[in-house]
Amino acid sequence: MTVTNQNDCALAHTLDMGEDGLRVAIKDCIDIKGMVSACGSAALKDSAPATTNAAVVDNILTHGCKIIGKANMHELAYGMTGVNAVFGTPVNPKWPDRIPGGSSSGSAVAVAAGRCDFAIGTDTGGSVRQPAICCGVYGIKPTFGRVSRDGCHPKESSLDCVGVFARTAAMLTKGMEAIDPTFKRQLLTKAPRLARVKSTVEKKLGDALVYALMEGLPDAAYVTLPHMEAAFDAGMTVIGAETVAAFGPLVDAGKPLGADIRSRLLKAHEITDENLRSAEDIRATFTSEVDAIFEDYDVLVTPALPVIPPTLSEAEDPATVLPLTKLLRPFNLSGHPAIVLPISVGPDHLPAGIQIIGRKGEDAFLCATAEWLTKTLSVFQTASQPEDTHDR
């Protein structure tokens, strides 16, 4: 294994590790033996190197892949812009004036820029799916607990999932095969029963997505999830409590932290046990709500984001960033698998997309649905789909 530091904002470190299979980038909050998992933070960059690989890294190497680097990220995986003042902000390859998204910014950028075939990120509240859409690539958050988090940071989480970025839905499936030895790909024998979830999005985005879905899926049902907004708020509460439990001591010790991270950790200190109990009640209610709909339908469909991702200058106002995970974060709380599929909208071809959600444990079926949708909806057929040249 060779390690080289470089002034590259997508990769925190370059590597040449493993065999000559699919090229993979690994988010810097995932352990690779002999390397520091700095988690995008100056507060952790001088920590002791990992003594073992994370389980997902070993799975990837066993699959014959080549790890090409550790990917940059939003500090402590606790932000949605991907902006990182210490290690550099990865540049969104397709929309360089816009945020790359967070927290798995470097992973999304590495894939969008063609540096690797797929990349690994982590998703606690949309941190794979949101940067995937910001950078115009595919992303999956598997069923909670399906993919081992051994060797991931923070060590304890009731929300976080190891996920995959790719430039095509087919490569997303291959990425899942690499990170999860239990994953067995499926082929659809008939069209899945789809239901669109009632969602509020900005008009220029909503019109484009609705027309695309109505044209390609005219028979899709229309359903509501009454506790969707409450689930978003509850997810914010849970991630705040769990992040401060993991990283709050960095504040107490006066460690160097970005102003946004320090502020969020201090705010999270105010979360009470009663707040957490209420959030857990919402988790149970919302999860049951989603499961009930799956008694009649196979896959739920929502817009991926309710707004167009902001520019870097617009993102300096936190109010422009908070809505980005409104439709993503609830499914971290419930634990259902979810995939985002990118679509560009409007005359300026701005980043947008749809999200599909499946039953727990049916990740392979959801991946098959994603591949089916890219072949069924004209909005994907007219988009530029990069050729998938790897058949492993």
UniProtKB/TrEMBL annotation:
MF terms in GO: catalytic activity
Domain Amidase: 21-183
Annotated InterPro entries: Amidase, Amidase_CS, Amidase_dom, AS_sf
PANTHER family for the chain: AMIDASE DOMAIN-CONTAINING PROTEIN, TRANSAMIDASE
Protein name: Amidase
